[in-house]
């Protein structure tokens, strides 16, 4: 058999296809990946789009993207870029698809995207496990004062076992309040209950009973916060949730509460929250997200009880591969004239 006929390519060798075939056009679709992704994710893109290009590091700016995108039909972008009206107005005419390598899209001007008639897709519903795992790590790390323990060891100040050293809190019997009971919130709820915690939640609407998974809906906002030993912020950033955790709501939390944020930094009023940490009304915080990332408010780095991480909620190789697979599937659908699964 002729060697040209054999191929590992899932679409088959181009030489065997009609040049007018939509599959040929699909394979040759210019895809611009705007920053380095894990090699395993790049392989996912190039398995279907062999000509997918990665923007060099020295061009990874909004202006660099717009220049390099001329001729591309699809652009892969992460949350590090704010896609505002000016971006969409300057977007080359060749670009038909903006593929967000993220589940969140609060950094995108959706109205401007619609005006430009570009199709926006993202990666929802596949990050819940990875983010929920990290949420539990932050809950446990903050409750057991893990960062303080690491600092004690590394500084050489540890003098040995003491029955009063770094006393923390056990999880069993504690009430975890989840603000935002979407896919991530429900996965955290399952994990928390395995630790013996009781879960209460606030949402725009109560979930159907069969989807609550043992969690308890609290309709009254103040009653919800007053009952939280640990508060997890897992809601999307919207005008309604912006600075949700303000001075008034912080006062409703019990003395010594723990707060964990795996959503967006803007859900917290930083000044009010830092005051609560300094006066010990809030005993500890686990933070993976911040206002104005990556310009973290430096007070969080010097305030006792804060366990800070650099926005790594979805940073597992499994999640990164699944994100790429989700985008590739939808880009294929769009280019073949089909409806994508995750259009915004």
Automatic annotation (TrEMBL):
SUPFAM superfamilies: Formate/glycerate dehydrogenase catalytic domain-like, NAD(P)-binding Rossmann-fold domains. Keywords: NAD, Oxidoreductase. Residues 31-343 form the D-isomer specific 2-hydroxyacid dehydrogenase catalytic domain. Residues 136-313 form the D-isomer specific 2-hydroxyacid dehydrogenase NAD-binding domain. GO terms for cellular component: cytosol. Pfam families: 2-Hacid_dh, 2-Hacid_dh_C. GO terms for molecular function: glyoxylate reductase (NADPH) activity; hydroxypyruvate reductase [NAD(P)H] activity; NAD binding. Belongs to the D-isomer specific 2-hydroxyacid dehydrogenase family. This is D-glycerate dehydrogenase.
């Amino acid at each position: 058999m002729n060697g040209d006929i054999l191929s590992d390519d899932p679409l088959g060798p181009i030489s065997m296809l009609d040049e007018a075939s939509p599959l040929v056009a699909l394979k040759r679709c210019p895809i611009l990946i705007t920053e380095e992704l894990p090699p395993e994710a790049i392989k996912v893109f190039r398995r279907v789009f062999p000509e997918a290009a990665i923007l060099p590091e020295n061009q990874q700016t909004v202006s660099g993207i717009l220049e390099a995108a001329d001729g591309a039909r699809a652009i892969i972008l992460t949350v590090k870029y704010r896609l505002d009206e000016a971006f969409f107005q300057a977007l080359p005419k060749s670009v038909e698809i903006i593929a967000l390598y993220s589940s969140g899209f609060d950094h995108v001007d959706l109205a401007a995207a619609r005006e430009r008639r570009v199709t926006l897709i993202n990666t929802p519903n596949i990050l819940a496990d990875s983010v929920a795992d990290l949420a539990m790590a932050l809950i446990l790390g903050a409750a057991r004062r893990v960062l303080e323990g690491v600092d004690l060891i590394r500084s050489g100040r540890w003098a040995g076992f003491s029955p009063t050293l770094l006393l923390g809190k056990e999880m069993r019997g504690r009430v975890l309040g989840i603000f935002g009971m979407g896919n991530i919130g429900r996965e955290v709820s399952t994990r928390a209950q395995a630790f013996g915690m009781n879960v209460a939640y606030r949402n725009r609407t109560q979930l159907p009973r069969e989807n609550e998974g043992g969690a308890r809906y609290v309709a009254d906002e103040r009653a919800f916060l007053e009952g939280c030993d640990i508060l997890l912020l897992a809601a999307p950033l919207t005008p309604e949730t912006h600075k949700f955790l303000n001075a008034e709501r912080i006062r409703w939390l019990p003395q010594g509460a723990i707060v964990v944020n795996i959503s967006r930094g803007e859900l917290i009023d930083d000044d009010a929250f830092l005051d609560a940490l300094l006066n010990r009304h809030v005993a500890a915080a686990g933070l993976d997200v911040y206002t104005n990332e990556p310009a973290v408010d430096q007070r969080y780095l010097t305030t006792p009880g804060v366990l800070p991480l650099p926005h790594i909620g979805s940073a597992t190789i499994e999640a990164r591969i699944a994100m790429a697979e989700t985008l590739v599937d939808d880009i294929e659908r769009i280019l073949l004239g089909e409806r994508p699964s995750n259009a915004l």
